[in-house]
Amino acid sequence: MNCWKSFNITKDHGSIRLIILSLFFMVTFFIFFNISVAAFFNKTTVVAFNPFIIVVIFLLVMPLHKILHGLPLWLTRKKTIFQWNRTLILPSLRFNQLLSKRLCLMVMIFPALIGTVLTIVLTWAFPSGMDYFGTYGALNFGISAIDFLYIINLLKAPHQSYIEDDQNGCKILIKQTS
């Protein structure tokens, strides 16, 4: 295998820029979501503000996001390690196999897609909780901003490439031609 390209999103873009991009995605999602919901549900009684629910959403959004990343890998029977980072209290997902470009794209888009669909369905089913569902959706979409940067890099890769992800970044590999 030859390395076609390697990239590290944090090193390439910088932590501050990624945080600003993520916040931009969060705010944009929340605004468009609330405008869309207001257009469909005119006179909805909203549940009274409960800070406990907001704290629970903040604590659960990242683990749920990582589990949704792992779901396509588990469904395709790829060995995946889900562990908690004790210093940052954040989950991490590791796999030590090469992934096809198609599977890696699915892994990257899955949390944003499922999180957005879940937000819309729950808001449709329970319109009184739209603020809480919108908060979850916005946080999930903001976290997905980094996934979208991965997707942009992966879309530029050759069709028959393989992806390797480690602590130093992501490597796009292609088969050697003899």
List keywords for this structure.
single chain, 178 residues, alpha+beta, 4-stranded antiparallel β-sheet
Order of strands, widest sheet? 1-6-5-4
Discrete helix count: 5
Quaternary state, please?
A: single chain
Find the count of extended strands (DSSP E, 2+ residues). 6
H/E topology pattern: EHHHEEEHHEE
What percent of the residues sit in helical stretches (DSSP H or I)? 55-70%
Strand content: 15-25%
Explain what you see.
- The protein is of the alpha+beta class and 178 residues long.
- The chain has one domain.
- The chain has helices spanning 9-13, 15-40, 51-75, 101-125, 130-155, and strands at residues 2-7, 80-85, 90-95, 99-100, 162-166, 169-174.
- A 4-stranded antiparallel beta sheet has the order 1-6-5-4.
- The chain is elongated.
- The model has no long low-confidence stretch (mean pLDDT 89).
Layout of helices and strands:
Elements: E1 2-7, H1 9-13, H2 15-40, H3 51-75, E2 80-85, E3 90-95, E4 99-100, H4 101-125, H5 130-155, E5 162-166, E6 169-174
Helix pairs in contact: 2-5, 3-4, 3-5, 4-5
